[in-house]
Design a protein that fits this description.
17 strands; binds zinc ion; alpha+beta; Alpha-Beta Plaits; five-stranded antiparallel sheet; Aminopeptidase
């Protein structure tokens, strides 16, 4: 079997759920050591809650350094994965779990390119590597990463769903929010007039929040929890949701509007509101004339593939790199139907992704 496919299948067999990446971290450290590359774990595990830190390495070369990144964790059902290589070259899981091509396709492609560079002894750019933890849990690992250690100004994150040649050059600001309505509980039949109905307050607010898409901004209310029993006026109701926008100011403006809507609903019903929000990531747009876009176009065309640049409403570690001044793209590395048991990759797509990444690091 082709080395790249062998690597991919071997990595798929390693359990690596989010926060439980220790075995994958050791496997990658061992494989990098075989290539003469010494990798080190950062100290992010102390704050991220993962079993291990992000795994980082630096491979000396010539010219401007380039950062390659892929995450170590896979979504659930993540344990007991087995790759099945079909006659037509498609690779799926055995059916009970995800395949883990997200992001092991990216990890395998990086390892393959490093192996080829070592074999050929060809000149290449210095390569920085970051394999992060708990990416699927809203990029938890990279949030504890020390960006000041990065030497590269450019990054390619090998973590995009879809055909090889595709790259995401725009992703949104993402903010989650939590609205807690506090009322007063009382018996619903003996003394309802003494109660303050937290659930009614929350629902009044929720009914006024404009969910869905408006221009380049989306809003969603995702969960609602409240109440204890049918004969009790609820004293607490909690709503959670999120805002995404390609414009960071627009996301913040929308968040303020939502808070104002909830505030008004609380006032009208006599409930008390406490509102909080968490910034998950901030928007970026990598310019068409930027070096990563230009270099990616050249690398794709050298491999006989027409590059396709897209905007995605999903966040990734690239949002965090961009926020720290490292410009880049999230590129397809042979993962399809991600986050489900029908996820697949193919020998052909993995090979094509490796060809593109090899061209990128060789500065073609
Ligand atoms: Zn991913």
């Amino acid at each position: 079997m082709d080395r790249l496919i062998e690597t991919f299948c071997a990595l798929v067999a390693v359990d690596s759920p989010s926060y439980g990446e220790r075995m994958m971290c050791e496997e990658l450290r061992r494989r990098l050591a075989e290539l003469g590359i010494e990798a080190h774990e950062d100290d992010s595990a102390r704050t991220s809650g993962s079993e291990c830190g992000n795994l980082c390495a630096f491979v000396p070369g010539e010219g401007e350094p380039l950062l390659l990144s892929a995450h170590m964790d896979t979504v659930s059902p993540a344990c007991g994965k087995r790759a099945v290589v079909h006659d037509d070259g498609t690779i799926t899981s055995a059916g009970e779990t995800v395949l883990g091509a997200d992001c092991l396709a990216g990890v395998s492609v990086i390892l393959e390119v490093l192996a080829r560079l070592k074999e050929r002894g060809a000149p290449h750019r210095p390569i920085e590597l970051v394999f992060d933890t708990a990416e699927e849990a809203y990029c938890i690992g990279i949030q504890s990463f020390n960006f000041s250690t990065v030497r590269s100004k450019e990054v390619y994150v090998l973590d995009l769903d879809g055909p090889v040649g595709r790259a995401a050059w725009q992703a949104p600001t993402m903010i989650s929010f939590r609205a807690e309505f506090a009322g007063r509980s009382t018996h619903a039949a003996f003394s309802p007039e003494l109660g303050v109905h937290a659930l009614k307050a929350a629902c009044l607010g929720a009914s006024r929040v404009p969910c869905g898409r408006a221009g380049e901004t989306t809003v969603n209310l995702g969960t609602i929890h409240g109440g204890k029993a049918d004969n009790v006026v609820p004293d607490l109701c909690v709503l959670t949701g999120e805002v995404r926008s390609f414009s960071d100011p627009a996301a913040r403006q929308k968040l303020a509007e939502i808070e104002a809507i909830f505030c008004r609903a609380a006032e009208q019903t006599g409930a008390k509101l406490s509102f909080s929000s968490t910034d998950l990531c901030s928007a970026y747009h990598t310019a068409p004339e930027s070096r990563p876009v230009q270099a990616y176009s050249r690398a794709c065309r050298a491999a006989g593939i027409e590059p396709q640049f897209v905007s995605t409403y999903g966040g990734s570690v690239n949002n965090h790199f961009a926020a720290h001044g490292i410009e880049g793209l999230v590129i397809a590395a042979g993962m399809n139907n991600c986050h489900g048991v029908h996820e697949y990759t193919s020998c052909r797509e993995l090979a094509r992704a490796a060809q593109i990444v090899e061209a990128l690091v060789c500065g073609i």
